[in-house]
Amino acid sequence: DIQMTQSPSSLSASVGDRVTITCRASQGISNYLAWFQQKPGKAPKSLIYAASILHSGVPSRFSGSGSGTDFTLTISSLQPEDFATYFCQQYNTFPITFGQGTRLQIK
Amino acid sequence: EVQLLESGGGLVQPGGSLRLSCAASGFTFSSYAMSWVRQAPGKGLEWVSVISGSGGSTYYADSVKGRFTISRDNSKNTLYLQMNSLRAEDTAVYYCAKDNNDYVWGAFIDYWGQGTLVTVSS
Question: What is the pLDDT of residue B104?
Answer without folding.
Answer: 85
